[in-house]
Amino acid sequence: MADFRRTRAFEPTGVFTYPVDPTVSAVLSAVASDDWTAFAKLVHPYVHWTEDGITTRGRTRVMALLSGHDGVKPASSYELRDGQVYRWIS
Q1: Alpha-carbon distance 66 to 53, whole Å?
Q2: Which uninterrupted H or E stretch holds 54?
Q3: Does pTM top 0.85 for this prediction?
Q4: Which of the ends of the chain has fewer CB neighbours closer than 10 A, N or C?
Q5: Euclidean distance between the first and final Cα of the chain, in Å?
Q6: 3-state secondary structure (DSSP) of residue 44
Q7: What are phi and psi of 36, to 5 degrees?
Q8: Nearest to 47 by CA among 14, 2, 6, 7
């Protein structure tokens, strides 16, 4: 069953105000450290990644998108399927 969360846990200062799902924290860490092997294990193959209203679909496309960024925007909402990120909205 999907686990869908909406959160306002992220403050503009870059600090979470309460505990975040470990998978979400691991995704942020993997992107920050350019660990794409770890990232691939954390996101669903058919992930829907939305930033600023633009959705990119598929793990490979999302990795290509994020590898060109300085960082990743924390999720305002996300959905997990089988322990992997299926939707990420920031």
Answers
A1: 15
A2: strand 54-57
A3: no
A4: N
A5: 22
A6: strand
A7: -75, -25
A8: 2
